[in-house]
TrEMBL record:
Name of this protein: Formate dehydrogenase
GO biological process: respiratory electron transport chain
Residues annotated as domain Cytochrome b561 bacterial/Ni-hydrogenase: 8-211
Entry GO terms, CC: plasma membrane
Taxonomy, superkingdom: Archaea
InterPro entries in the record: Cyt_b561_bac/Ni-Hgenase, Di-haem_cyt_TM, Hydrogenase_cytochrome
Membrane recorded as keyword: yes
Its membrane topology: Multi-pass membrane protein
Length: 234
């Protein structure tokens, strides 16, 4: 066996849709966040509709972007909820397996990985042999993403239905701040994620994600030995 699957078709589909939806949400939300700076973009979006709705291009663009942001936000939420239920129902949650180890071992693995990524220093053998499908840094990043999604989802839904729920202007301001914090945490996750997947040692992961989902067995043996062991492979 020369290659082994490390990324399923379902995982790839969800990842690609998540990438697309988050990017669109970031663009539309970014315009709404700083309309003074991005009014030119709103103008371009709103120009074709402005004559139809009888308003100026910027106003039309902002309204279209706001509506799109809300609609796509609900689609993104539905995708995440559906995939989360699937993972739990079929016991496919593997990303948190490193957290089952004692905190001291987690810290040792995290420090070794950080040194490896920043300086190229090889991983100690005792750390390398304990590597799962996802290392402990990925587990921590997943927690960061979950917190971001909770902040974004809770504040976003409440803001959409603020009139129905009778939310005051002061409370709405706090919700907007919470939404912005969630977005900032999401961008932080994206930065860490991009750094990790573009690192030379993780290139097979990137190729697998946008390819056939498989990686060379020799690479998997070195970077995911515990994952192979659980599958009865070596």
């Amino acid at each position: 066996m020369d290659k082994i699957e490390i990324i399923s078709i379902g995982y790839k589909i969800v990842h690609h849709w998540n990438l697309l939806l988050f990017t669109v949400l970031a663009i539309t939300g970014g315009v709404l966040f700083s309309i003074e700076v991005t009014s030119w973009f709103a103008y371009i979006i709103g120009s074709p509709l402005s004559t139809v709705v009888g308003t100026d291009p910027v106003t039309a663009g902002v309204q279209l972007l706001r509506t799109s942001h809300r609609f796509i936000g609900f689609i993104w939420g539905a995708l995440l909820i559906t995939y989360g239920i699937y993972l739990l129902a079929f016991r496919r949650v593997e990303i948190f397996k490193p957290l089952a180890r004692p905190l001291s071992k987690q810290m040792a693995e995290a420090k070794a990985l950080i040194r490896h990524y920043l300086t190229g220093k090889p991983l100690p053998p005792d750390v390398e042999k304990e590597l799962e499908r996802h290392n402990v840094l990925v587990s921590y990043m997943a927690i960061l993403l979950i917190v971001s999604i909770i902040f974004l989802s809770a504040s976003g839904v409440l803001l959409v239905y603020k009139d129905v729920l009778g939310i005051s202007a002061a409370t709405a301001s706090w919700l907007i701040l919470l939404h912005d914090i969630g977005f900032a945490l999401g961008l932080l996750f994206v930065a860490f994620h991009l750094f990790a997947v573009t690192h030379p040692s993780n290139r097979p992961l990137l190729v697998a994600m946008f390819g056939d989902g498989k990686a060379e067995l020799s690479w998997v043996q070195k970077h995911m030995p515990k994952y192979l062991a659980r599958r009865g492979l070596r």
